[in-house]
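Re: the 550-residue chain
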Amino acid sequence: MASRPPSPSAEKAEKKTDLKDGDSGRHALNGPETNPVAVQAENASHGEGHKELRTNGKRELMEDECYDKLGFCFPWYRKWTILTVIFAVQMSMNFNTGVYSNAVTGLVEEFNISEQAARVGQMIFLVAYAFGCELWAPWSEEFGRWPIMQLSLFLVNIWQIPCALAPNFGTIVVCRFLGGLSSAGGSVTLGMTADMWEADDQGYAVAYVVLSSVGGSTIGPVFGGFIGQYLSWHWVFWVQLIFGGVTQILHFFLVPETRATILIDREAKRRRKNGEDVWGPDELKTPRLDAKDVLRIWRRPFEMFLREPIVLFLSLLSGFSDALIFIFTESFTLVFEQWNFNTMEIGLTFVAILIGYIIAYLIFLPDVRRQMKIRKTHGNGARLAERRLLLLLFIAPLEPIGLLGFAWTSMGPAYTPWIAPCIFATMIAMANYGIYMATIDYMVAAYGPYSASATGGNGFARDFLAGIASMYATPMYTNIGGERHLQWASTILGCIAFLVMIPLYVFYWKGPEIRRRSKFAQTLEADRQLHAGRRASQLRPNEEPYGASP
């Protein structure tokens, strides 16, 4: 019988609280996987001495008995090949959200509708995307990452065809809604990172995938500028189909299944052929699909979003920051037309935002190393959650500063060169990346085994608020402030950004006290003491603070 050889990962498994994700699909009680760190944190581990579980006389093959068959033991080059394909997949899905704005003018002319009506196609995709990410997560736990991602990519790509060939605008709205709902997004792509890296070792991988998440919506306008300049609006959807088709092919051939329970099932079947009487965790589940469990999974992130102040305010901070990018998608056209930029040149100004993301990513890499060193030296001790916000305390102010600077350097060529607002846009992008990266990291440390559900609210807020922003951006920039409407609109956003940022510093200062007063945090602490050696997948519904059985 193959067994896992002694390793540093095995030694630290007994003392860390957020450990590898191995059998969370067994009872389907985990929250949606919006973040790989969160996924692993939501699966506390079996003790090393617990080697088997008997159900109806059948012995379950445990993760520790076939650890070398799981994604954690993939060679480093294979892990990063998989992660790079996932990077492209995430970019393609978010590309669909950003490139649409370049079709608005063509849709107005083709279907004789207003620009505001044409923007419904962008709004409906993003709002549906927010719900789609939550809906896909449980099925990736049940059936595996690979088939669910292939199905999601296939559906997203299929819905591009009727959009490109649409005889009326209603067809586009319906197909954009279905395309957004079909997008698995970070609920699956980020979850795959948790399948391949231990919780304490996956910081670099998480930072890399977060870059793809924020960067995809930015390259949309960059390429969309060329499409708008030289091609018809139909090509906005054909290019999405080409991009999505290429990433689906790459995923089909280069990405294997990574979900631990699926791999254990396969290993159990292989061993039974060789005469060993063992069964995989999903093979022992009765029933395999439980409607109540699925509803519980879907419900928990929304409950936490509404009832936990940390989740609510940090999610709103993250969501507002992401909404700014889509406001910029509209305001850049109004701003840079003052310098007589054409459609292609306006698209290229979004490179400034992409540069900001890359700079922030590079800044966070040393911080990832710092966090790993702290955990190695001090363990998961007091104020670990607050340590994860430390870098953000210095990066977050770039958001209101950038907005105010963008506002008053966008007055036209008589006052400033065109590069000035681009510089401030870069600062805003740095803050946006930092907010997304640090807030999900904070929730992981604050909510431990239930952090995937906590970060589900974060992802939902980002996509939902971005969708709403796509509708009010242009009216806001054209109807506020009279002659200086462009400047006052961004100034208002800068003031709001300042107010939304305040909870960040409160949580850093009073974080431990806030968690002590939280019903969920108190329940979590009791669970940690009671179930220190168990995976969260073994917690029964009546042990969960949120999402109990209806």
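Residues 71-259+300-540 form a domain with the Growth Hormone; Chain: A; fold (CATH 1.20.1250.20).
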